[in-house]
Amino acid sequence: MISLKDIEEVDKSQMFQVLKDFPSQIRFVLEKESEIPFFLNRNTKFVILGIGGSAIAGDFLQATLRNSELNFVEIFVNRNYLPLYKIDKHTNVVVNSYSGNTEETLEAFKEAQKHTQNFIGITSGGILYEILKSMNYPIIQLPIGYQPRAALGFSFFSLLLLVWKTIYGKDQITHLNEKLVSLEKILQAKSQIYSELRKTNPALNLAYKIFNKIPIIYACEETMYPVAFRFKAQIQENAKNLAFASAIPEMNHNEINSFAYPKDILERVKIIFIKDANDHPKNIKRIEAMHSILSNNIDIEILESKETDFLFRMFDLIYFLDWVSYYLAIMNRIDPTPIPVISKLKSLLQR
Prior knowledge:
The protein is an alpha/beta fold. The chain has 2 domains: about 40-170, Rossmann fold (3-Layer(aba) Sandwich), CATH 3.40.50; about 195-330, Rossmann fold. The protein is built from 14 helices and 9 strands. The protein has helices spanning about 5-10, 15-20, 25-30, 55-65, 105-110, 125-135, 150-170, 175-195, 200-210, 225-240, 265, 280-295, 310-330, 340-350; strands spanning about 45-50, 75-80, 90-95, 120-125, 140, 215-220, 245-250, 270-275, 300-305. The protein has a 5-stranded parallel β-sheet, sandwiched between helices. Strand 6 (about 215-220), helix 10 (about 225-240) and strand 7 form a beta-alpha-beta unit. Helix 3 (about 25-30) runs antiparallel to helix 8 (about 175-195). It is globular.
């Protein structure tokens, strides 16, 4: 069992406290709600320029709106040096870079300016902040001092309020605010559970099941695939552990056929299915069929939130799995905050 001493020895950058305080990011955004800008044109097409921890907020927004009354809103998440989605003068573009120095996002922003002047920035500072300020574009300024992946609450809930205001207007925000207050309370309660170093802690227990394994995470594209993708990335960045994720049903047409070789690697594979009440009925059958096919040879775990609202279920799982990745890092005896290989890659690219 992990002890407080293990955490003190390994977690030099104190991610434990950042995780424990994560629900308060919702409160921070709500207190700044009146300052969050929005697009006055009421257009329903949004392109979000971002990458890594800054882009995933767009994926979660896309899933949230797809499973809500706002399913008519188009959200495109652009992870590249060039805008890969059509941008015209009517398109609303959100430029999201926590550091403000992400080169792919800055390049895409520069290119997008040839096609539209509808921009709002989300950043804590850096080059992006200076450019936005010089061009008089609205800015949602995030608190400094976080890893981008740890600032998800600031980024996502700012995005959600931005889009909601654009569609409904700034005076129709009370219901959403009340909903987010409820979500904060749910996550605060979970924070107490996940931060306790006890045998009853489900995040700690799942981390033990993954330890010394290669997690492969599957979820349905229409619902929880962004959660699977986030969990994969959190394992990779926090625990410095190999992990993979794919979407259902696509992986049924290729990846499912690969669980034969190499046999020595398969012994260390852990499959995790993330289910949701909104999964397409035929995709539910696919998960059941895959479990039947693979469970004889592969260790399988099935996760599903029982919250009643899709947004609540999504963040219930995000928060739980962030803790799992944290505890896996402690088991791997690696500080979850630094990302030295990514930093080295950026250094080489700047030469």
